[in-house]
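Handout, section B. The chain below has 139 residues.
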Amino acid sequence: MAWIEDHLMLVILAVLAIIIFVFLFKLALRAALIFGVIAIIAIFIFGVSPNQIMDLGKQGVNSASTAYEKTIEPVFKKEMDDAKHVEKKDGSFVIQSKSVKITGKDGDKNAKVVYKGKTYDVDMNVIQPLREQIDTTKQ
């Protein structure tokens, strides 16, 4: 009984972890079953081949990438052409344009992007190519 009292928090965390794992497992299983039923219906009732289903998925991804490249990316690149990039001695940086402000620090996983008053965390791997394109002012 003394062991349980000494390790009560650990026991509670372990039980919570197990409950969360079971919940996520059930959720993933349901999603897989739903997708499986949809695929079986598409194959047997509508005569769609598995390769056609995979091609549809690939087309969806490609069309999203194409839409990004033709609409959002040019606007963002134009915005970044006018941006100012300031790097400070402590490794932090600020990229500022008319409507976007990006702040971060070398070595961090994420940077903060402020756009129209809303702040977003963005992976530093996405920000790094922008930093290399923009003229830098060191302070």
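Note. The CA atoms of residues 80 and 116 lie 15 Å apart. Compare this with the example in section A.
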